[in-house]
Amino acid sequence: MVQSLLKGAKLVLALAPLCASLASPTTASAQPTSEVLHYWTSGGEAEAVKVLKEAFEANGGRWIDAPVAGGGGDAQAAVLRARVLSGDPPSTVQIKGQNIHEWAAAGTLKTLDDEAEAGNWDALIPEVLKRVVKYEGSYVAVPINIHRVDWLWSNPEVLARVNAEPPRTWEEFNATAEKLKAAGYIPLAHGGQPWQDATLFEVVVLGIGGADFYKNALEELNEDALRSDTMVKVFDQMRKLSTYVDPGFPGREWNLATAMVMRGEAAMQIMGDWAKAEFLAAGEVPGEDFICTPTPSNNGFILNSDSFAMFRVPGEDVAEGQKLMASLVLDEELQRAFNLLKGSIPARKGVSSEGFDPCALQSMEALASAEESDALVNSLAHEIVQDGAVRGAFLDVITEHFNTDMSSQEAVNLLAETVMLAR
Amino acid sequence: MSHRPAGNKRPSVLDRLSTVLPQLVVAPSFLLILFFVYGFIIWTGYISFTNSRMLPSYELEGFRQYLRLFAMDRWDVAFNNLLIFGGFYISLSIVIGCLLAVLLDQRIRVEGTLRTIYLYPMAVSFIVTGTAWKWMLNPSLGIESYIRGLGWESFRFDWIVDKDMAIYVVVIAAVWQASGFVMALFLSALRSVDQEIIKAAYLDGASTTRIYLGILLPSLRPVFLSAFVILAHLAIKSFDLVVALTGGGPGYASTLPANFMYEMTFRRNQIGLGAASAVMMLLTVAAIMVPYLYSELRGKRHG
Amino acid sequence: MARAERLPGATGKRRLFGRLFIWSLLLFAALVYLAPLYVVLATSLKDLAEIRAGALLDLPHELNFAAWQAAWSEACIGVRCEGLKPYFLNSLLMSIPAVIISTVLGALSGFALSKFRFKGANAIFSLMLFGCFIPLQIVILPMAQTLGFLGIANSISGLILVHTIYGISFTTLFFRNFYVTIPDDLVKAATIDGAGFFRIFWRIMLPLSQPIVVVAIIWQFTQIWNEFLLGASFTSGGAQPVTVALNNLINTTTSVKQYNVDMAAALIAASPTLLVYIIAGRYFVRGLTAGAVKG
C-alpha cells in the first residue's frame, strides 16, 4: 500500500514538469535545450567539447552535459540503450559510423534534411563522410570532425639516442624498436585494451596489405582475404609489436600511453590524432617535442569520424536545441576551434587551413590524395565499418592473439571462423 | 477499549478483512517481485529465442542464439572463469573467515577493533576495492615496485597483467572483501552455541581443538550453508569488480559471465545473445539455489 | 556476550606459545586487511611529485588535503567541474528512502509470513527469496522500459524504486528468519486480547526487532550506496549516484593521472558506508547472531 501510494506520488512528481511543458502555449520563446551524451572526457577532448558548449550557449541554448567516461564509449552505449528503451533518449548523442545506421534502422533518429538543406550540407560535407551520416538518402547525423587513425607519434629525443628517425617501413620500425629495446627504452607505448589492440591491427593491415586488401578483408569480410597469407603476415607483425610494449600495458588508458612518450619513457605510439590533442594540451610543440608521421601505410588513410545524431524527443525546446546544434556544428569558426583542440581536421570543406599545425595540414593533404588514389579506408577499431557483432569478433581474436602465444596461422583460422559466425 | 466483550463480536467486513490482513500486507511486495523478478525473467527468456539485436524484437527464431553462444570462445572463457573464481572465492572466504572467527573467539582483548578491521572491506564498493587493488597490483606502481625498491630486484608479482593469472587477482580482491563478513557470520554463530555443552565437554577432558572440531564446527553446519549461498550469489553477480580491477583483461582473460552479458547486450548490439547468456547464468543460480531453498523450507516445517 | 565461562586451556609455556601464535596470526591478518585502506589514504594525502618519487607504503611527508578538496568540489567530470559533491547528495537522496521503504516492507512481510502461516506462505516466501539471487544485468532492459512507462526514467525516483524492489527480498528474508525465533505464544496471547495485525506488529514485534532492524538497514544501505550497474545504466548526467560519478572521475583522465585525487574521491565515495560499519558494526554482528543467519 505504502509502495503504491508512493509510486503514485512519484508519478505525479515526474509528470508535473512534463504537463507544464506541454501546457506552455508559446513555442517561439522555448529556450533551445540539448542534453548531450558524449564520452569526451580526457584532457584535449574535454577542452574541445567546452568550445562547443560555449558556442551553443552563446547562441541562446541550454547545454545539459551528460558525459559517460570509460572504455572508449562502452559505458555510453549502455546508457544510450537504456535511455532509448525507456522512451527518454538524450536529444544529442555523440555517435559513430555503423552505430548511426543501426539506430537509424531502428527508427530512433530524427532526419536532418531540413537543416541540411538550409545549411547546404550537400556541398559542404565531403563524400566520404556522407556515407557515414546518411541513411537511406537522408541525413541522420551531422559530422563534427575527421580523425586519421594511422599516425605514429614519436619522441625525437629518445629516437636520437639510438640514432634513429621515425620509421617509414615496418622493417625500419622493427629495426628501430630492437635498437630502442637494447638501449633500455620502451619502443612502443601502448594500452592493452581491445580497441587499442585493434587500432594497431588495422594500421598493420593497411601497412602490410595495402588499401585494397584492407577493404577486402575488413570492409567486405571476404573470407579468402581473411584466410590469406597476407593476413598471416599481419599477425606476424602484431606478434612483433607485442614484444615492443612494456609489461605493464594491460588495461592502460591510451592517453597514459601518450604521456609515456611525452616523458621519454617510451619512444613511439601508434594512435589516431586525438593523441596529438594530449601533446598540445601538455604544451608540447609538434616537430620539436614530438613528431607526427604516418605509420608505414602505403599512402593510405584510415578514417575515423565523430558525429552528433539527434534522437526523436518530444518538446519544442528540444527540437529548437537540435536545430541549433545541427546548424552550429558545421559552422566554419566552430569547426576550426573545435578541431584545433581535438586534434582532428574539419568535417567540412572550405575551412581555411590557417592556424592548423603541420600534423593537421599533413592529414588534410593525405586525405585528399588518398581519396584520389582510392586508398581511403574506414576504421574498424573505431566503428566506422562493421556492426557491433562483427567488430566484436575481430576484437576478440586480435586481443586474444596479442595477449597469448597464439601462432599467426591459428589466429587467422580463428579470425575467419569467429567473423563468419558473427555475421 | 481493547477488551471487547466476547458476545459483542459481529462478523463484519472489518473482521473478515482482518483475517486476510497478513495476505494483504504481503501482497504488494509479492506482486512487485512477481512482476519485477519473474516477469523480467520470462521476458529475458523469451528474448533469448529471438534475433533481437539493437533493440528487443519479438520474432522467435529458435535456439540459434544458444548455438552461437556455445560456439564462442569468449563465453567458454567467461564461464570457466566463473568456476575458477567461484570455487576459490567461496572456499577461501569460508576457510579464512572461519579461521579468523575461531581465533577471535579465544578471548582476545581488542576483539572489537580487530573485528571492525576484518569487517570493513565489506562496506566498500567493488569500484573502490577494484581501484585500490588495481593500483597495488600494478607492477610499476604497487607491491612489485615497492619490494624491488627495498632491494629484492628480481621480485615479481605481475598477476594482473598475466593472462593466466588475472582471474586470481580478482579472487584476491574479492576474498579480501568478503572474508571478514564470513568471519562475522561464524563468530556470531559460535557465540550462540550453548555454553553448557562446551563446559561439559571440557570437564570430560576434551582439548580446545577437539571441542572446536568435534562439537562447535559441526554445529555450525547451517552457517556454512548460509555463507556458501551468500558467497555463491555474490560470485555469480560479480561484475563491477572485474570492470574496475582488470577491465576484463588482459584481452578477455578475466571476464565473467556477467561481463559477457553486458558486453553483448550493450556494446555489440546482440541483445538476443546477451539474453541467452543471462538465461545460462540464471540456470546456474537456480542449480545452486533451488536445492537450498527446498531443504531450507523443509527443515523449517519440521522445526 | 563474552564467554565468561570459557575455561582456560593448557597453562604455562604451551599456553604462552599458543597465545603468541594466535596473536601473530590475527595481527598479520589485520595488516593485510588494512593495507589497501592505508595505501589509498596515504596516497590521497600526498602530492603528485611525492607519489612519483616515493614508495607506495611511505607515510606522506605532510598532511596535504588539496586532493580531498579537489575531489569533493573541484575535479572535472566531463565539462562539469564540481567534484563529487552533487553526486554524493544524489546518493543520499536515493539510498535513504530506498532503505527505509524496503526495510518497512520487509518487516511487514516477514511478520506476516512468519506469524500467520496462511496457505502458501512458504511458497510465497521461497519465491520472494529467489529475488535475492538474480543477476541484475538481466533486469536492465525490461526495467528501462518499465521506468519509461512509469515516467521516472533517468531520475533518482527511478533508482529509489529499483533499489526498493530488489531490496525487499533481502529484508523479508532477514525479518522472517528473525521473527520465526520469537515464540508464537506472544502473538497468540495478543490476538486473544483483541489486538489486530498492526497493533501486534507495532506494540510487540517492533520493540523486539531492534537487532534485526540494524542488520537490515546496514545491509540495505551498503548494497544501495555501493551499487554501480543500475546507477550507471539508468542515469546519466546530473542524476548519477556517487559510485558512477567516481568511476567517471577516475576515467576522466588527463595526461597526468592524478592518483591522489582519484584516491581521495574513492575514500569520499566510501566514507558513509565505512562510517556505518565502524560505528554500528558491533550491532551488525550482534544482529546476525540474533537470527539472520540461522538456517
Which features would summarize this protein structure in a list?
heterotrimer, B: 303 residues, mainly alpha, MetI-like fold, 0% strand, flat, disordered N terminus, C: 295 residues, 2 domains, 13 helices
Biggest sheet details of chain A: 5 strands, mixed
Overall pLDDT score of chain A: 87
CATH superfamily of the largest domain in chain A: Periplasmic binding protein-like II
Strand count, sense and closure of the main sheet of chain C?
Answer: none
Separate helix tally of chain A: 19
Indicate the mean pLDDT of chain C. 84
* Coarse structural class of chain C: mainly alpha
Summarize the structure in short.
Chain A has 19 helices and 14 strands. Chain A is α/β, with parallel strands linked by helices and 423 residues long.
List the helices and strands and how they pair.
The complex is a heterotrimer of chains A (423), B (303) and C (295).
Chain A: H1 2-23, E1 33-38, H2 43-58, E2 62-67, H3 74-85, E3 92-96, H4 97-105, H5 113-119, H6 121-124, H7 127-133, E4 134-135, E5 138-139, E6 141-143, E7 147-148, E8 151-154, H8 156-161, H9 170-182, E9 186-188, H10 194-219, H11 223-226, H12 229-243, H13 254-263, E10 266-270, H14 274-281, E11 291-294, E12 301-304, E13 306-310, H15 316-329, H16 332-342, H17 358-372, E14 376-378, H18 388-403, H19 408-422
Parallel strand pairs in A: 1-2, 1-3, 9-10, 12-14
Antiparallel strand pairs in A: 3-13, 4-5, 6-13, 7-12, 8-10, 8-11
Helix pairs in contact in A: 2-16, 10-12, 10-18, 12-19, 18-19
Chain B: H1 13-47, H2 64-71, H3 73-104, H4 111-119, H5 126-137, H6 143-149, H7 166-191, H8 195-203, H9 208-219, H10 221-237, H11 240-245, H12 257-267, H13 271-302
Helix pairs in contact in B: 1-13, 2-13, 3-7, 3-10, 3-12, 4-7, 5-7, 7-10, 10-13, 12-13
Chain C: H1 12-44, H2 48-53, H3 66-73, H4 85-115, H5 121-130, H6 140-150, H7 156-180, H8 184-192, H9 197-208, H10 210-226, H11 229-234, H12 242-251, H13 259-292
Helix pairs in contact in C: 1-13, 3-13, 4-7, 4-10, 5-7, 7-10, 10-13, 12-13
Task: Explain what the structure shows.
The complex is a heterotrimer of chains A (423), B (303) and C (295). Chain A is an alpha/beta fold and 423 residues long. Chain A is built from 19 helices and 14 strands. In chain A, 54% of the residues lie in helices and 13% in strands. In chain A, strand 4 and strand 5 (138-139) form a beta hairpin. The longest helix of chain B has 35 residues, at 13-47. Mean pLDDT of chain B is 84; it is low at 1-7. Chain C folds into two domains: 12-64, no CATH class; 85-292, Orthogonal Bundle (MetI-like fold). Chain C is built from 13 helices and no strands. In chain C, helix 4 (85-115) runs parallel beside helix 7 (156-180), helix 4 (85-115) crosses helix 10 (210-226) and helix 10 (210-226) packs antiparallel against helix 13. Chain C is flat and about 75 Å long. Chains B and C meet through helix 1, helix 3, helix 4, helix 5 and helix 6 of B and helix 1, helix 4, helix 5, helix 6 and helix 7 of C.
